Amino acid sequence: MKVFASIRRWLADVRYRRLVHQVALHHHRAGAIAPYAIAAHELYLRRKLEDFRDFASQRYIEERSLTLNEIKQEWLNLVVKPMAKSEFTRDDAKALKAAIVAIGHNEAFVGEARAVYQDDLRQAIDSAKQGSVYKPSSV
After folding, report:
1. Closest by CA position to 49, among listed 108, 135, 124
2. pLDDT in tens, 59-102
3. How many domains in the chain?
4. Residue 101 sits in which domain range?
5. How would you label 78-91 residue by residue, b for 16+ Cβ within 10 Å and e otherwise?
């Protein structure tokens, strides 16, 4: 099993380096001065956005009565506000906040949470057609 684990780590490292190189090549072609630094920064922000999507999905499954804006605000308070306090990560916090605010319902939830959200949406539409108000229940 150690052999397979080491091969997986090596392969993940190769894939990550290839991804960084591809992003850096794109920035180099665009005329960036430090394409590898920009590529690493871009991948860092992508990872933070993926973390937000995982967090939003988990929170929505835990408590379905939360709105996406409430989940976004909770993430901004937990992650982005501490980043904004440091002068080194202030620009990252601004970029991350802008990206999170722009995320809609279709991009925010992944996996099971997306299916649960779509089901809640269908039920809300059906109940609105019948003249009642749908209130999702927490699981």
Report:
1. 108
2. 988 988 888 899 999 999 999 999 899 898 888 899 999 999 99
3. 1
4. 2-130
5. ebbeebbeeeeeee
Q: Is the pLDDT of residue 135 over 80?
A: no
Residue 135 domain flag: no
Q: Answer yes or no: is 137 within a domain.
A: no
Exposure on the CB side of residue 110, measured as CA atoms within 13 A: 10
Q: Which residue has tokens 């949406």?
A: 121
Note the pLDDT of residue 104: 85
- Per-residue tokens: 37: 């630094």
